[in-house]
């Protein structure tokens, strides 16, 4: 029996990996990842306090850090999201993360292609990347599937997600169905860090992304489950404005005052607080085969 379950899980992982090999995100490349590790993260004290409170709490908690539209603020906030994901993983908690890119590109497409991020179809591609990334990371979580869920065991379970002839809305709906199934088999406590979700937010994607947030809210309210979510954006985001609750938005307006090499009063670095909140049954996320 154990061997059969392991094989089943391995088959699912093998099928799911096509979702990442087919869709590339600039910010998920190895070079970018290494560059993030060398960055110092300085933020206004009021933002750091809220982020560290979010990390420490052992209960379900959501926050949305909203910075002004500013190139330096965007870079600092992305670095902060990276740093928090790193702290959470190093603490031994399960962390799923996604760093959106302004230039999502299908593998094999021309490198000369260019487009405006306001183009809704590109935002649909960014939403696709987010959903597919969640699927591949949920499949890799260190919890054995006690049985093969019917939605995942079909030979064509992931085929519709990779078929570009299928409209994005249909692919998003299929992805949400797989995410719901995978959440049922995930560890009881999850941390989710999502940077720049505004790059995926438009009228065409708002419904499926809102459904995703609803799934996570529902799971976090279930007895014995903990779901902690951090969103970081520059500028407003209609998706989050409509789905976040009172007290969950953190105003990072003062980030617009920062300039390279200019120290500011009331700014500090994010640190890994002691007693980082752990929910029930948490382990380090891994990519074991």
What best-fitting shape do the alpha-carbon axes yield?
globular
User: What is the CA–CA distance across the termini?
Assistant: 18 Å
Name of the level-1 CATH class = Alpha Beta
| CATH homologous superfamily identity | P-loop containing nucleotide triphosphate hydrolases
* Topology, number of strands: 9
The CATH topology turns out to be Rossmann fold
Main sheet: which strands, in order across?
A: 4-6-7-3-8
Helicity, as a percent range: 40-55%
Strand fraction:
5-15%
What keywords describe this structure?
289 residues; alpha/beta; Rossmann fold; 11 helices; 14% strand; disordered C terminus
Task: Tell me what the structure shows.
The model is unreliable at 1-7, 21-28, 103-119 and 274-289 (pLDDT under 50). Strand 6, helix 10 and strand 7 (226-234) form a beta-alpha-beta unit. The longest helix has 21 residues, at 120-140. This protein has a 5-stranded parallel beta sheet, sandwiched between helices. The protein has a two-stranded antiparallel sheet with strand order 1-5. Strands 2-9 form a two-stranded antiparallel ribbon. It has a single domain, classed as 3-Layer(aba) Sandwich (Rossmann fold), CATH 3.40.50. It is built from 11 helices and 9 strands. The radius of gyration is 19 Å and the shape is globular. It has 289 residues and is α/β, with parallel strands linked by helices. Residues 268-289 are annotated as: Disordered.
């Amino acid at each position: 029996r154990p061997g059969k379950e392991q094989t089943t899980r391995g088959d699912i992982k093998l099928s799911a990996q096509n979702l990442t090999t087919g869709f590339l995100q600039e910010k998920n490349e190895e070079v970018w990842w290494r560059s993030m590790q060398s960055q110092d993260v300085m933020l206004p004290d009021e933002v750091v306090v809220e982020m560290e409170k979010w990390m420490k709490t052992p209960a379900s908690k959501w926050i949305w850090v909203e910075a002004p539209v500013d190139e330096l603020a965007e870079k600092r906030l992305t670095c902060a999201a990276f740093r928090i994901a790193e702290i959470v993983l190093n603490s031994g908690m399960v962390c799923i993360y996604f760093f959106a890119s302004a230039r999502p590109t299908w593998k094999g497409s021309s490198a000369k292609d260019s487009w405006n991020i306001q183009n809704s179809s590109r935002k649909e591609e960014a939403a696709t990347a987010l959903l597919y990334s969640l699927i591949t990371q949920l499949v890799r979580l260190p919890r054995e599937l006690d049985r093969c869920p019917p939605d995942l065991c079909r030979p064509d379970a992931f085929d519709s997600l990779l078929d570009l002839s299928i409209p994005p809305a249909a692919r998003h709906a299929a992805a949400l169905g797989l995410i719901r199934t995978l959440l049922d088999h995930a560890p009881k406590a999850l941390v989710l860090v999502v940077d720049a979700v505004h790059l995926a937010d438009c009228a065409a994607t708002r419904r499926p992304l809102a459904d995703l947030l609803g799934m996570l809210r529902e799971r976090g309210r279930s007895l014995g489950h903990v779901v902690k979510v951090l969103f970081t954006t520059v500028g407003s985001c209609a998706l989050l404005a409509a789905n976040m609750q009172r007290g969950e938005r953190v105003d990072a307006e003062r980030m617009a005052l920062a300039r390279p090499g200019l120290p500011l009063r009331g700014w500090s670095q994010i640190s890994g607080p002691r007693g980082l909140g752990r929910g029930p049954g948490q382990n380090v996320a891994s990519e074991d085969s």
